[in-house]
Amino acid sequence: MVEGFRFLPEYFSPAAQRALVVEILSILETNPLYRGAMPRTGKPLSVRNTNLGPLGWVSDIKGYRYQPTHPETGAAWTPIPKALLDLWAAVSDYPHPPQACLVNWYEADSRLGLHIDADETAKDAPVVSVSLGSRALFRLGGLERSSPTSSMRLASGDVVILGGQSRRAYHGVDRIYPDSSTLVPGGGRINLTLRRVTAPNPV
Ligand code: SIN
Ligand code: FE2
Fold this sequence. Notes:
Largest sheet: 6 strands, antiparallel
Strand order of the largest sheet: 1-10-7-12-5-2
Bound molecules: succinic acid, fe (ii) ion
Order of helices and strands: EHEEEHEEEEEEEE
Shape: globular
């Protein structure tokens, strides 16, 4: 397995998972999910998303980018919940807070193709990912698209860290197992990814 990948199963207790889902659902009322699109083709993404924090990752026909406002409401993204800032402080081994939390909402037939997270300039900060709700079949490869891959199931409460070499590794979600959990309404899955986007100013 590629260096720097960490898997923290059941990091969040069932009660903490429930509290996080309740908080996210309440945030979605004013900071809604929307459906982005693929750069160039404009093909709709399989996963709806939104963001929390000073910056949010946006994908549309013009490309991938980070921006401070929601593309549909025009409002600033809602701040990142404390439980997630605490998670980052505990596991990231990075001395600055995350700037973006991408909220990906998977439905029964959602998937996420193999990709690298490459739109951030803070290259030494990890990506910290939280799974909530139904289980997912997660695929992790290496630094090349053709590198061998391995698959694992991610369950509710699990935390995955893409640090070190694995920060630039291909990864994706082949499928979810709908109804393997009732935590997320509709039997879906929420994945939260915390990221540092810009390198902090040198002191
Ligand atoms: C991602 O790569 O952005 C999400 C991974 C996941 O849903 O587990
Ligand atoms: Fe990713």
